[in-house]
Amino acid sequence: MTGFDRRDIIRGMGLALTAGAVPARLLAAPRFATDPFTLGVAAGDPSPDGFVLWTRLAPDPQSPDGGMPPIDVPVRWEVAEDSAFRRIVRAGSARAEARFAHSVHVEVGGLRPHRPHWYRFMVAGGGTSTVGTARTAPAADAPIDRLRLAVAGCQNFEAGYFTAFAHIAREPDLDAVFHYGDYLYEFAARPGAGPRLHLGEELYTLDDYRRRYGQYKADPDLQAAHAAAAFILSFDDHEIDDNWAAGVDKDGNPATVFARRKAAAMQAWYEHMPVRRDQVPIFGGRAYRRIDYGRLVRMHVLDTRSYRSDQLCEGPGRPRSETIKCLPADRPGRTMLGAAQEGWLDQGLANDRQWNFIAQQVMVMPHDVRKDGGNAPVVSSDNWNGYALSRQRLIDSIRRHRLSNVVIASGDAHQNYIGSVPADSNALDGPAIASEFLATSISSGGTGGARHPDELRALDHNPHMQLINNQRGYHLFEMTSASMTADVRVLDQVDRRDGAVSTLARFEVSPTRPGPQLAAGA
Using an 8 Å Cβ cutoff, are 222 and 216 in contact? Predict the structure, then answer.
C-alpha cells in the first residue's frame, strides 16, 4: 500500500481495538501523500429527482487495494445547481468501504427535475475531487422538447486510445451516455496488439479485476466523459469472460468455478460504476430497468447475458473455422432474455410515449456475415441471430402493441451497422418493425477503415442495412416528438492520442414509420 501515512493506520487500529471494533470497519481519516481521486468521478442512472454519484479512493490505482489501508474512510459529497457551488442543494457524508475497494456510491434524491447539477467529493487529508456534472431526468409526465443521448462501448485498452470519449465529453447538451458494455477486456497482456499494453495476465480474481479497472479508469479521456454527463451502464461479456452465457463460460469450466470468477468480476464492476446496488445481480438485484424521459422517450435497458441459453455452434476446443460454418438452428425453450425479462419488456412496451428506445448489447437484426466470395450464409451464434425464436417473440410483442416508434441501440460488433429489423426475418427487404443503430467500438479493433477488405460486398447480402463501417467512434441521438436523428461519429485513428472526429453520416427516423433513412444532404 502507498499513498497514505501509516502512522494514521497504527493510531486508528489502536482506537478500534480499544473500542472492540473490527479494524476493517473503522472510520478513519488517513493523511494522503498523493491524490486519492486518481480514478475521477462519475454519475449514473438519472431519475427526475437525482442520480447515483460515484468515486473511489485510490492513490495507487494499480495495486489491488488502491494504495488504501484496510479501514473505512468518510467522504463528503456536495451537489449544486451552479458550477461555482454557490447554490448547494444536497450534501452529506458517505462511507468508502474497504470491502468494496473504498468505492463510494451515493444515491442522491430530492433534486429538481430536468436540469444540470454539479457535484464533487472531499476527503479529510486528501483534498477535493474534480467536479462532475449530470442532468436529472424530466418528470415522468412532463412534455419535453428533445433528448440528446450518446451511445458508446467496447473499449479495449490495448487496441487504441479512448479519444472518442474526449469528443463525447465535448458534445453539447448531452442528457446522458448509454454504455452498452465491454467497459474493459479480461485478456492477458498481448505485446504488439496495439499502442498500449494491459498489465498482468488474464483476469480471474477480484484483485485481478480491480487492477484492470484501475488501469482503464485512470485514462483521462474516459474520466472526462464521465465528468461531463451521467452514464446509463450495462455490461456485456468482457467484463467477465468472452461470450459467457448465464452460468456458462467459454472454456468449459465447472459451473462452480465460473460462478466464483463471475462473482469477483461483478463485484469489481459494481465497485467502479455509478450504478445502484439493486442493479447488481450478485447482490440480488437485476440489471435490466426502465428510464423515462418525460412523455418523449421510454428507455428499456436490457441484460442479454445473465439469463440467456448457452450459444449454439460454440464450445471449448471447437475451432473457429468450424464455428463460422455452423448455422445455429434455434429451438423452443431457448432464450436470450429469460422469461421474466421478456415479460417485463413486453409489459413496458405498452405505453404512449413518442419513442421506445431499447438499449442493449448485441445485434438484433438479421446479419449474414459471409466474406466476399462466400456462397452460403454465415451468422453469429452470440447475438440475436443465434436466438431467432427470442427475436421473433420481440417482433411479435412490438406488433401486438402496434408500435412504429421502436429504436434499438446495440454494440459488441466493433463496427457501425445501421438498418432495420424486418417484420419478417425471411423477407429482409420487406417492411420494417423497428430501427437498429449498432454503434462501433471506442477502440476495439484498432483504427480500421471504411470497410474490412473482405467485406466490400457485405451490403449485397444484407439489403435491410443502410450502412456498414469499420471505423471507431460513437453514435449521437437527438429525439423530438416529430423525428429522431442519429449522427455516426467516427475517428480518423486511435493509434495515437488526439484523433480527429467527424460525422460520417446522419440518419433520420419517423415515429410513425420504422426504418432509418439517410438524411437529406448527408
Answer: yes
**DSSP code of residue 39:** T
Q: In the structure grid, which three cell numbers stand for residue 382, read together?
A: 452470440
Torsion angle (degrees, nearest 10) of CA 233, 239, 240, 243? 90
Q: Are 379 and 367 in contact (CB under 8 A)?
A: yes
Q: Which residues contact 420 (CB under 8 A, 6 or more apart)?
A: 365, 432, 433, 434, 435, 436, 464, 465, 514, 515, 516
The answer to whether 462 touches 368, Cβ cutoff 8 Å, is yes
Q: Is the pLDDT of residue 24 over 60?
A: no
Cα–Cα nearest to 463, from 515, 508, 412: 515
DSSP, residue by residue, 245-278 = BTTB-SS---HHHHHHHHHHHHHHHHHHS---GG
Cβ neighbour number for residue 93 with a 10 Å cutoff: 11
CA-to-CA distance for 444 and 82, rounded, in angstroms? 37
**Start-to-end CA span in the chain (Å):** 54
The residues that bridge with 437 in the sheet, in sequence order, are 409, 418
The one-letter amino acid at 261: R
CA 198 and chain centroid, separation = 20
Tell me which residue has cell 494522503.
32
Tens of pLDDT, residue by residue over 198-225, are: 999 999 999 999 999 999 999 999 999 9
Side-chain-side CA neighbours of 172 within 13 Å: the count stands at 0
Q: Is 228 helix (H, G, I), strand (E, B) or coil?
A: helix
Rounded to two decimals, the pTM is: 0.94
Q: What is the pLDDT of residues 394-405, one digit of tens each?
A: 999 999 999 999
Burial string for 251-270 (b: 16+ CB within 10 Å, else e) reads eeeeeeebeebbebbbbbbb
pLDDT mean across residues, the chain: 93
pLDDT tens by residue, 174-199: 999 999 999 999 999 999 999 999 99
- pLDDT at residue number 274: 98
By the 8 A CB rule, do 435 and 421 touch? yes
- Secondary structure (3-state) at 413: coil
Q: How far does Cα 455 stand from its chain's mean position? A: 27
Residue that the C-alpha cell 474512510 belongs to = 73
Q: Residue-wise over 337-350: b if at least 16 C-beta within 10 A, else e?
A: bbeebbebbbebbe
Give per-residue pLDDT as tens, 136-157: 999 999 999 999 999 999 999 9
